[in-house]
Queue: 4 jobs
Job 1
Amino acid sequence: MERGRDPVEEASDESRDLHEVSTWEPRTPLDALAYTVYNGISYGFQAIVLLVALAITATLLVQPAILVADEPALAVFFALSVVPAALLAGFIWYTDITTNEPLGLLVATFVLAVLFATFAAVVNSVFAGLQAIPLVGAALFFYLIVGPVEEAVKLLAVRVFAYRSDSFDAVIDGAVYGAVAGLGFAAIENAIYISGTVAEADIGTITAATGIATVRALVGPGHVIYSAIAGYYLGLAKFNPDNAGPIVAKGLLIAAFVHATYNTTVGFVPDLVASLYAVPPSVAFVGYVIAFDIAVGYYLYRKIVRYRRAYRDVRDDTGPEPKPELTEFDPPQR
């Protein structure tokens, strides 16, 4: 976006020196010092945030590390629990019709999501008491705290690094990086949930790990879908700077809403389905999670399809053919 100009600058010709009248650039030693101090504070603040996140992450991973040291097989359950989410994130990456994103940026986004997820864990713990409010407590907790906070930290993992890269050069890239951030968040959340369940279980370690890893494997794809939606809007915001704030807010509102809706409804809908249709509760749970993810995922799918079609159409009109399409991905033309 072009910067605004003061009336003096607009009316003057280029021969007039307007330094510290209506323009500014570092000229004096004091200017250089101010420039250095600003950069130091800016980068220093970012470094502090990362160090705090790293410290919290290390603390939260102590228990999983101890359990893996005692029972190495648990590492397999940690890995398996993120396979569905990883496959979904890979699919979203594969549907990017523009250019392949650098592996370094994808890895950095994953790591940042792991680190920033710990901020969400702290905030959720602080406000967990909301759930004690009769009738509406759980809904308030999920809609006001869990959904907004978790989706915000996942989007932050994209915004602070990948978003600033020249490789982030298309709207759809936001969905790709958002999906990777969701994968990173799911990875650490699964590790914490699995280790906590195993540590408290009275049954055998492998039995307990099998059950909770299966549940977490079902939950993981949701994180990928929600943050991919928010990421898509972040990508849209990058190329519409005049309306960037509202666009990002819209993406976060959608992602937070569907996230909170899942958390709120998964606690009672499967039980209700099981009682109405005489199916095992476990089957009702699996069916509900899959159905919810498909419904929300279809919203993301339609946005990706629309982008792909538009990209293909403009490339056909103005330039060489894009990379080969996934013919099985796009619905038939009408």
Job 2
Amino acid sequence: MKLYIACDHAAIEMKNEIAQYLREKNHDVEDLGINIGEKIDYPVSAERVARKVAADPASRGILICGTGIGMSIAANKVHGVRAAAVSEVYSAKLTRIHNNSNVICFGARVIGIETAKMIVDAYLEAEFEDGGRHAARVELINKLEQQG
């Protein structure tokens, strides 16, 4: 599975550490920026990852800003993206299992690097429980998105 990762200037160090951590675990990671010394508005980074994930349904995205909230709001504006802002492992796992989220967002000012690693692991190890009540609810979300 392809992973796309990006951040804003509040989370460059965490983004770099998470990207390296995932590469060490043999994940295919594409870093969509930014790097030390650069600045960017979080909606620009969110769009970069969201558009890549929307174009490749087998992929997933990771967005990191100060809190994860702004990134999730912006990413969710891209058709086909279900982004969730999380700050702990349980929600990271359940957003994948129950909501079929394809982008996860968190904040470098909210959690530390070890928690971020645990969140990413839980999210990537979880699989959507296709069928039943969860699939029906995701379909309702898809209908809302189509209605605009």
Job 3
Amino acid sequence: MSRVLEPSPAWFEIDPAFYAHGGTCFSDDELAALGEPAGLAALVGPITPENRGEEALSLANLGARVTAWSPDPAAADPARTLAGAAGIELDWRIGPLETIDAGPFDLIYHAWGGLQPTLDPDTRAAHLARLLAPGGRLVLYDRHPFASVVGLHRGLLVVARGYFPFRPADNPWTLGDLLTALAEAGFALDLLDEFPGSERYSTALDALPGLQWELRLRVPAAMLIAATLAFHPAPLEADTPAG
């Protein structure tokens, strides 16, 4: 009798020894976008159970002084456990991005899963700019918003939802919205790269059963953005004293 081999949870566990011995999770593209992080003050987040803080540990191993940001304590727990087992100390900040009182930072790595559908790109870009020193660098690696547009119908790749926010199921914001928000917050774009998949994370295309590789290569599923803070715009409205 044949049986289906079920994956063991151990297959997906991260060996803390990898980071204890100086390992990094970054792809060659990310390393090129990061430049030389040694000695820089870096903010990494949001730390979630999905990314488990691997980028924060990687930047620490590359010589950066890392502050790890997580939206809530429970989301930070897997990363704290991994960091402790690897013997790497991180400076933690827990709570919304706008409550972070550290910095200014030389580098911000905006981690996978941080671009939620409920995100307001203008507000997020403004808070990132507030936390960076002039000339500081933002590196963002996350899901590509266009990947959620496509679906499969009888083996064919089809447009299943709108890329523009006309209906409730459509994308609430586009890549253009995000880039414009960064520009208005004072960022100068250095790099925009798009990929048909991710080496470390699942994408919207991975959720399509039976998607053929030649079709997968036609749609961007992940993106890498690098930008430099060229100037500080006017303060956020909430930071402006009432007169």
Job 4
Amino acid sequence: MIIQKQFISGLASRKMRIDKRGQDEFRDITIETGVIAKAEGSARVKIGKTEVIAGVKMGVGTPFPDRPDEGVLMIGAEFSPIASPDFEKGPPAEDAIELARVVDRGIRESGAIDMKKLCIKEKEKTWMVFVDIHILNHAGNLIDAAGLASIAALLTAKMPEYDEEAGTVSYEKKHKKLPMKFKPVPITVFKMSDSLFLDPNLEEEDVTSVSLTVTTKDDGNIVALQKGGSQSLSLEEIEKAFELSLKKGAEIRKLLEKHI
């Protein structure tokens, strides 16, 4: 293991990778939507051997007091032991909570969903949108895969029919899409040795010293940031991370548009 890490670090110092990809090159990305029949929306994303599935469920509830005329969005993540020997059974671990928080922030801060259009009756009833993220196989770069799966699931989700007089939800009748406005895409930039890389596999991730997740939306604006790792990034490296994230985010967004 130590020899492997030294080998990967040595390659990174020469701006090279063990699978011969370029520094800003992702592994193959595949997006499949409508993979869970009972969900309002769902998507499976594969980035190389990393595999994530996201499902959207909806229900009617009470809006938050500080946002009485808006819908509610809640995102959770589960790291199943079948995805990695490092994942354990039980309540969501810190890594799962952090991943869900980063994905949630990117979607929420981008204004991806028109939350006001989800309000049924101000202060009393609103649509609640739940996104559940499940890691099927951990082979590196989980945040980007989870973020992409979540937004793909939301973009293809259809709302159940609500009978306001009876106060009932008909999950058999789904015609109207969620009121989506933007397609936020998270891109995580990782530092190995003194170089910046995108989409590390699991072996590369083990030797990274710091990461920066940059979420951008359709107009190229940065809507959320999340730093990982104990090391620091220089101003020049942060600017380079922004540049890489904007470029790759636009490319992945075009890929996403083919599936919605």
